[in-house]
Design brief:
The complex is a heterodimer of chains A (about 550) and B (about 120). Chain A is of the alpha+beta class. Chain A contains 14 helices and 19 strands. Chain A has helices at about 1-65, 70, 75-90, 120-130, 170-180, 205, 215-220, 260-265, 265-310, 325-380, 385-410, 415-425, 445-465, 505-515, and strands spanning about 90-100, 105, 135, 140, 145-155, 160-170, 185-190, 195-200, 225-230, 235-245, 255-260, 415, 435-440, 445, 475-485, 485-495, 525-530, 530-540, 550-555. In chain A, the strands form 4 sheets. In chain A, strands 1, 2, 3, 4, 5 and 6 form a 6-stranded antiparallel beta sheet that branches. Chain A starts with a helix and ends with a strand. Chain B is α/β, with parallel strands linked by helices and about 120 residues long. Chain B has a single domain (about 5-95), classed as Rossmann fold. Chain B is built from 4 helices and 5 strands. Chain B has a 5-stranded parallel beta sheet with strand order 2-1-3-4-5, sandwiched between helices. Classes of the chains: A alpha+beta (about 550), B alpha/beta (about 120). The interface between A and B is medium-sized, with 28 and 18 residues.
Chain lengths: ~550, ~120
């Protein structure tokens, strides 16, 4: 019962939980989309800033290529101009004008002996492409500082005459990026075309100068800007917006990573709050359903079943004492009424039973008094004239009366064959061990018990007069069997005087044919053997009247 | 030689007559009473009574069992036979040294019992 109630409560909670779950899913989807958008946007912003800076330097170098002292390689003027320029532009350290053989012609600082740019890729690249070139992460040979080299060819018509070379200070770039700052957990990375990191927030000291891991290296030269989900080198899971170098006017690879943990933190907090809320709600609803179930369902049902069990156990005063305040209590109240009625009926039945018993007892008394009167009247009528016949009559009457005793004491129900026989023989049992009874337990209805008792009485009387019971050591064996609902009974006289068949049909034979009910199909056979009478009889008993099978043998 | 006196208490005249015949046939003298009250009067007047034979259900202030108890109390030597058409009383309801016979009783057995008691 309790489990079912809990199931109901759970079932009620399921849609709520499902709705909240779906809501959670939708919010997360939405947030994920926002984060991707934001990552892409951040990458674009950082990228455009880098472009602007590089564009500024491009313009600067273009201006330098137009300076007459540079075009004509007027070394003294060139050195002056470049020194002044480098001093005023904070994001570059040095500017050199380099001849096509790689040797510097003039520069913002004094040129160390043997310095050459001929082997530098960006230099070669600028000569080849005759265009502005942004190189890769380089440690300056002259100052030893990390720079991003820039090269701009000086053109005379279609011919490259020399190359203006400078380098953006990565320290400066790093400061610019650091100043912009990032939200907690986010990261912005700038890398050159080799994938070497030139600036990064946060933790520049750890990453600047290193190469992006191979698995992300392909992003540096990807065809399109995009957004990916990555596990960053610093161990943070991020949504990474990136802009590859291939885009026109994009000299640096830029990526902006948004920490998913940070991005989803508010949602996660909300999720946690919701989950706790749901758990609390579920707990409260389970407690409530248990409480309500106990109070309004389980308790009344238990009470009702307890009362029924008590009633069955004989506590007839057990009542639910319920008032019909709801359906279950109405059941309890109705049960009380029913039990009241049953109780009343039971009392009536008991009273009726008492009255009936009283009547039966009274009737028995009257019947037996009637027998006594018949005995007395018979005595008046013929005791004097025919004393023998009177005695015989009187004994038969007594045997009949004792069988009545037996039947009435059981109130008309079945009597045991052994008891019936014993009662009929009571008058003849002055020497008890002379008659031996042996047989199975058989129950007889009154209509069989009465004729049987008269027959046994008759046999005993005759045995006393003419047979073995009249002799000093004569005995009688009375045994019976039960098979297929038929009793087979044998009266055998032993150790008596020699017997001979009587001349006329005895009372016993008449009794058997008349007194037994037709359905008993009674049969008898008397054999007057020289050593004693053997009288056999059989009759049917109703199947229902033989419930017991206990075998026993004892002497009556 | 005077016959032994037996008091028979029985409200039904025919049954009483039967008992009287039985007692006399057995060689005793029968004294009749139709209820317990009459029996008490007779017992007070005739002290030689040796045996009381009484029915249980009788009109009057006492039934046979009460009479038997009273006799056992006042005349302890008198032997008692209780007769009834009702079921056998409980042993605790019977006075000491008394016998019960169910009605109708076997006349021979009754005679034998009375003769044994008188001996």
């Amino acid at each position: 019962m309790r489990k079912k109630l809990v199931a109901v409560a759970v079932a009620a909670l399921v849609p709520v939980v499902a709705m909240l779950g779906y809501n959670e899913f939708a919010v997360r989807q939405q947030r994920a989309a926002e984060v991707r958008l934001q990552a892409a946007q951040s990458a674009r912003q950082a990228s455009s800033e880098a472009e602007r800076i590089v564009e500024g330097l491009h313009s600067l170098l273009t201006a330098v290529t137009s300076m007459p002292s540079v075009r004509h390689l007027d070394v003294a003027n060139c050195n002056d101009a470049l020194r002044s320029l480098a001093g005023n532009v904070p994001n570059i350290q040095t500017i050199f004008v380099v001849r096509l053989d790689g040797t510097p012609a003039c520069g913002s600082i004094e040129i160390p002996a043997g310095a050459t740019f001929g082997d530098r890729d960006y230099f070669k690249h600028a000569v080849e492409t005759r265009d502005f070139v942004v190189g890769t992460y380089t440690k300056s040979r002259i100052t030893g500082r990390a720079v991003l080299p820039l090269a701009m060819p000086v053109m005379d018509g279609n011919r490259v005459t020399s190359v203006v070379v400078s380098g953006m200070l990565l320290d400066w770039l790093q400061n610019r990026i650091t100043e912009r700052g990032v939200a907690r957990g986010n990261a912005v990375t700038l890398a050159d075309s080799d994938g070497r990191i030139v600036a990064r927030v946060p933790l520049p000291e750890k990453f600047v100068g290193t190469v992006i891991p191979d698995e992300y290296l392909k992003l540096v030269h990807a065809g399109e800007p995009g957004v990916v989900q990555v596990m960053s080198q610093d161990g943070t899971e991020r949504v990474l917006g990136y802009r590859p170098i291939s885009l026109p006017g994009t000299p640096l690879y830029v990526s902006a990573g948004l920490s998913t943990a940070e991005a989803f933190a508010p949602i996660n907090r909300a999720t946690l709050t919701n989950s706790i809320g749901i758990a609390m709600g579920a707990l409260v609803s389970l407690l409530l359903s248990t409480f309500i179930g106990n109070r309004f369902l389980v308790a009344p049902i238990s009470r009702i079943s307890e009362v029924m069990q008590n009633w069955r156990d004989g506590k007839t005063r057990a009542r639910t004492q319920m008032k019909p305040i709801d359906e279950l209590h109405a059941v309890g109240a109705t049960l009380d009424k029913l039990l009241d009625e049953l109780d009343a009926r039971r009392h009536e039945n008991e009273k009726a039973e008492e009255t009936r018993e009283l009547l039966v007892r009274e009737l028995a008394h009257r019947v037996k008094n009637g027998f006594a009167l018949v005995q007395a009247i018979a005595r008046q009528a013929f005791a004097k004239a025919e004393p023998e016949r009177y005695h015989s009559f009187s004994e038969r009457l007594t045997a009949l009366a004792s069988t009545y005793d037996l039947i009435l004491s059981r109130e008309g129900s079945a009597s045991s064959l052994r008891d019936v026989v014993s009662a009929a023989l009571r008058a003849h049992l002055s020497v008890p061990d002379r008659i031996v009874l042996e047989g199975v337990e058989v129950q007889l209805s009154p209509e069989l018990a009465l004729p049987l008792s008269l027959i046994i009485h008759e046999l005993a009387t005759n045995a006393t007069k003419y047979g073995s019971l009249g002799a000093e050591d004569g005995r009688v064996s009375l045994h019976w069997k039960l098979s297929e609902d038929r009793v087979r009974l044998v009266w055998q006289e032993l150790d008596g005087p020699p017997v001979k068949a009587p001349e006329r049909t005895g009372f016993g034979t008449v009794l058997i044919s008349r007194a037994f009910p037709a359905k008993a199909k009674a049969e008898s056979h008397a054999e007057y053997r020289p050593d004693g009478l053997v009288f056999e009889m059989s009759f049917s008993v109703e199947p229902a009247s033989v419930p017991r099978v206990s075998l026993y043998s004892e002497e009556a | 030689m005077t016959k032994i006196k037996i008091l028979i208490v029985e409200d039904e005249p025919l049954v009483r007559m039967l008992a009287v015949d039985l007692i006399e046939d057995a060689g005793f003298e029968a004294i009749e009473a139709s209820d317990a009250d009459e029996a008490i009067v007779i017992l007070e007047r005739v002290p030689e009574i040796r045996i009381l034979m009484t029915d249980i259900d009788m009109p009057g202030s006492m039934n046979g069992l009460k009479l038997a108890a009273a006799v056992r109390d006042r005349w302890p030597p008198i032997k008692i036979v209780v007769v009834s058409g009702k079921q056998r009383p409980l042993a605790s309801d019977m006075p000491e040294h008394s016998l019960f016979f169910s009605k109708p009783y076997d006349i021979r057995k009754m005679s034998e019992t009375l003769i044994k008691m008188a001996a």
